[in-house]
Amino acid sequence: MTIGEKIHDLRLRNNMTMEDLARQIGVQRSAINKYEKGLVVNLKRSTIVSLCRVFGVPSSYLLDDDNELTADEHRLVQAYRAADDRAREDALKTLLDHPKKELLTKVK
Predict the structure, then answer these.
(1) pTM greater than 0.85 (yes/no)
(2) Please, what are the domains in the chain?
C-alpha cells in the first residue's frame, strides 16, 4: 500500500473529508487530494508528523512501503512497547485466552 493509499484509508476510517483533514494539518484540500493520488512524492517531515498525530499512527506506518501491518496493528505495537511489564503480560494473556487462540499459536 502506498503512502497515498494509507492516507486515504486512514481518512475514510476516521470519517473525515479531505477538507477536514486539510484543516487539521494546515494545508489546502487540493494538497490532500495530491497526497492521496500519489502526486506528491516527498511529503514534508512536518506534514508526516501532522498526519501521524491526527490519525494516531507512528510515522513508520506511513513511510514503510513494505509494511504488512495495518494501522491498528501498529497502534497495538506502540501501546505494547510503551506499556509496563504488567500491562504487557495482561495484553498477551487476553489475546492468548481469546476463543480463536488456535489461530494465534500459528503466528508464534
Answers:
(1) no
(2) 3-63 (1.10.260.40), 71-107 (no CATH)
